[in-house]
Design a protein that fits this description.
Largest sheet: none
Number of domains: 1
Shape: elongated
Distance between the termini: 24 Å
Length: 295
């Protein structure tokens, strides 16, 4: 409850800051700063919620609000530059930073287990090939989680801009962003054309990650598709079977098999968070009192 409220306030404040003159004149710099802040927020979310399936919609909302913030740039060219900067950071992070982080964290946790076993006199765990295979699978799942967040954020972003365009008079877009309210259609079209382009980038990134880190991403995706087709329950989340060898925060993610049901859950929840932020922003700008609205 408190986590949701805190994140809601952070998203609202970030969106309000994107309307300022200071952000408009230094959009690229602030987008880079906010990217670092978002990375820390994502780490905090995963530690607080302890389950990636629960944290997914909140991270998607962060991703979407960050994209909407780029509308505060001082022109369409700066808007495109901000998106290119975001894409470049995403590529570097997913190819180099994330795989190294996953492996280092996994090895540190295993080392701590060894030290604890030595102190307590219990059996010292040994890094067997089977344990290493489970570790690689955990790394792949963590990467696929990051891919899911980026993909859902890219799909929800044009929907968010469409809502702003649909209620452009109520939001007073021309005053907030200093542009004609009808110009939002160009930003919306750009975000729509960006979706298939990002899918092509993802295909190349998956192949690159398989070559660099010897991961079997495509084999795992095929395995997930086969499990989803042969599921025993219509809603796969109701299936009782889980891979108990995986870390607890990844078991539900693996159980959902990265299926359409998985993306349906994430998109519905993330869209709800984003629309709630936009709605409350409109209430604040119109100086409405929710207690006085006749329900």
């Amino acid at each position: 409850m408190y986590t949701s409220v805190f994140l809601f306030v952070i998203l609202l404040l970030a969106l309000e800051f994107s309307f300022s003159f200071l952000f408009r004149q230094n959009a690229l710099l602030f987008m880079l700063v906010f990217k670092v802040v978002w990375i820390q927020m994502e780490s905090w979310l995963l530690k607080t919620l302890t389950e990636k399936m629960v944290a997914l919609p909140f991270e998607c909302a962060l991703q979407t609000i960050q994209y909407v913030m780029t509308l505060g740039a001082d022109g369409f060219i700066t808007f495109i530059q901000a998106n290119c900067l975001e894409a470049g950071i995403m590529i570097i992070k997913r190819v180099t930073f994330d795989p190294v982080k996953f492996k280092v964290v996994r090895l540190i946790r295993f080392r701590l287990k060894v030290q604890q076993a030595q102190r307590t006199g219990a059996a010292v765990p040994v890094m067997t090939p089977e344990l290493e295979a489970i570790g690689l699978m955990s790394d792949m799942l963590s990467l696929m989680y990051r891919y899911s967040v980026d993909t859902l954020g890219a799909i929800i972003s044009p929907i968010t801009i469409f809502i702003l365009f649909l209620f452009r008079e109520e939001f007073e877009i021309n005053k907030l962003y200093g542009i004609r309210s009808t110009d939002l259609r160009y930003f919306m079209l750009f975000s729509i054309f960006l979706i298939p382009a990002l899918w092509i980038v993802d295909i190349f990134l998956f192949n690159l990650e398989e070559l660099l880190w010897t991961w079997k991403l495509f084999e795992y995706i095929q395995f997930c598709n086969e499990r989803f087709r042969n599921r025993t329950r219509r809603w796969i989340g109701l299936d009782d079977t889980q891979n108990e060898e995986l870390p607890p925060d990844l078991r539900a993610l693996d159980q959902m098999c990265l299926s359409v049901q998985f993306f349906l859950l994430g998109s519905l929840h993330a869209s709800g968070i984003v629309i709630a932020v936009l709605g409350y922003m409109l209430v604040l700008h119109k100086s409405h009192n929710l207690l006085e609205i006749p329900w």
